[in-house]
Specification:
Elements (H helix, E strand, L loop, with lengths): L4 H11 L6 E6 L3 E6 L7 H5 L6 E5 L2 E5 L4 H16 L13 H4 L6 H13 L3 H20 L6 H13 L1 H12 L4 H12 L7 E2 L2 E2 L6 H20 L4 H64 L6 H11 L4 H22 L4 H15 L4 H11 L1 H23 L3 E3 L13 E3 L3 H26 L3 H8 L1
Antiparallel strand pairs: 1-2, 2-4, 3-4, 5-6, 7-8
């Protein structure tokens, strides 16, 4: 029976030190992310013991409670409501890491804090990326089949509109996350995609609308936030409402046009070239490393920091070649869970957990299996990584042969990624290679776990 979101939210807050200890509330696809003023007041073990909680990640930046897709949105809404009822609202909408880093600067390293904040910029965009990606894939199938020619132009507009203006959303979220005025961040980032920039010359060449993509938008909004804060501290209050926005947009916009767009374009081109070179020359090795190391990133919640790279590749090439490789980690996890299910046949509780979490794992949501099965057992987590490495090597091998597989959007993986697949030889070839990688990950994850994933004690328990 499904847990009541209101009860779960109240229990989470009680074990997070109470509503007064919570400085911010946010969520991604599977995790409730709480910023806390005093991390020592968080009862991590109590949180893990709550019904419906699949795992907990704590560090100096706050606490992440893994609840799973669907559930997390309801619990987040209830949590926000409880915090508003019992605590004063902050002066501005706080990011998931606000407060916690200030309270524990030694525990949150600058790199981890920066990665989380960049992730916080892009995570809210994932639903739109998924929806538009699925529509783009459907539209591509209709175009290739010559079906519904009257509808495909409309589908193209619906699917492409968000991607055409994604820089504005990135700028808005960046300013919000880093303490600026969101609309000013969006206004400056809009310069990146404005068609009129084609008339501007920088470094001896004409700019191209969209040059630098989300990286340029991110840099532009960061600069706008810095300029705005500088102005706020120096402009008289009577003139602040007039001068601060004007100076922020003017200075940041000009620097974006005559520097940031060009530089971000160079970086974006380098990312695309590096991804192509990596797969063309070291395909199996690259796939092995990426597929094998992705589960630890998911466990730490740092996998969201890869979103800017995926988004850059999608804007540049139409799909990201990295996501199918990383998705193989989930296949290894599924194979490992099946081996645990077979070997530990007398552990009724664990087998029940696997049965309930396996459908989500097949659809690419790995946290239930990670926190409920493989990580508590120890060795199966390592053998699951081996399965992911094998699946990644399989997909990377075909990429080296010239059959590239990419995803037109980010968010889903596992079997849910099939509608978003694309490649240089068409969706059919991409689906075949990706499916072969999944089967390889399942098989190797299962075999490695079945043979090496248990200690002598757990083997004895399994045969009892």
């Amino acid at each position: 029976m499904r847990n009541d979101p209101a009860s779960t939210a109240a229990a989470v807050l009680a074990r997070a030190g109470g509503p007064g200890n919570v400085t911010s509330v946010a969520h991604c696809m599977t995790r409730l992310r709480l910023g806390v003023a005093d991390p020592a007041a968080v009862d991590a073990e109590g949180l893990r013991a709550l019904p419906g909680v699949l795992g907990v990640v704590t560090d100096g930046a706050g606490v992440q409670i893994v609840l799973g897709p669907g559930v997390v949105e309801e619990v987040t809404a209830r949590t926000e409501a409880l915090v508003r009822e019992t605590a004063p609202a902050p002066a501005r909408p706080a990011g998931p890491d606000d407060g916690a880093e200030a309270a524990n600067p030694r525990e949150a390293t600058p790199v981890k804090a920066l990665l989380r904040r960049v992730a916080n910029v892009f995570v809210p965009l994932i639903p739109a990326l998924i929806g538009c990606g699925v529509l783009a894939g459907l539209n591509g199938l209709l175009l290739n089949a010559g079906l519904l020619p009257a509808l495909t132009p409309a589908l193209t507009a619906v699917a492409s509109g968000f991607m055409a203006l994604i820089a504005v959303f990135v700028g808005h979220n960046t300013a919000k996350e880093f303490g600026g005025t969101p609309v000013l961040g969006g206004a400056v980032a809009a310069v990146v995609v404005y068609p009129g920039v084609a008339k501007v010359t920088a470094f001896g060449v004409h700019l191209v609308p969209g040059q630098g993509g989300v990286l340029g938008a991110l840099a532009a909004a960061l600069l706008a936030t810095r300029v705005e804060k500088w102005c706020r501290g120096r402009v008289p209050g009577a003139l602040d409402v007039l001068l601060t926005p004007t100076v922020t947009v003017l200075v940041s916009g000009l620097v974006t046009l005559y520097g940031l767009m060009y530089a971000a374009g160079v970086v974006a081109a380098a990312i695309g070239a590096a991804a192509d070179w990596l797969l063309a020359t070291t395909g199996p090795a690259a796939g092995l490393v990426l597929g094998g190391l992705f589960l630890p990133l998911v466990m730490l919640g740092l996998h969201q920091a890869l979103i800017p790279i995926h988004t850059t590749l999608i804007a540049q090439q139409g799909y990201t070649v990295l996501l199918p490789l990383l998705a193989m980690a989930g296949a290894g996890q599924v194979g490992a869970a099946l081996a645990v299910y077979v070997r530990l046949r007398h552990d009724v509780s664990l087998r029940t957990t696997i049965r309930s979490a396996l459908p989500a794992g097949l659809l690419g949501v790995g946290e239930p299996l990670i926190y409920g099965v493989s990580l508590p057992l120890g060795r199966p987590f390592v053998t699951a990584c081996a399965g992911g490495a094998a699946g990644g090597a399989f997909v990377g091998f075909f990429a080296m042969l010239g059959d590239k597989v990419g995803a037109t959007a980010i968010g889903p993986s596992g079997w849910a990624l099939f509608p978003l697949l694309a490649g240089n030889h068409g969706p059919g070839t991409a689906a075949a290679v990706y499916g072969g990688g999944l089967l390889t990950g399942y098989a190797v994850g299962f075999a490695a776990t079945y043979l090496f994933g248990f200690t002598s004690r757990s083997r004895a328990a399994a045969s009892a």
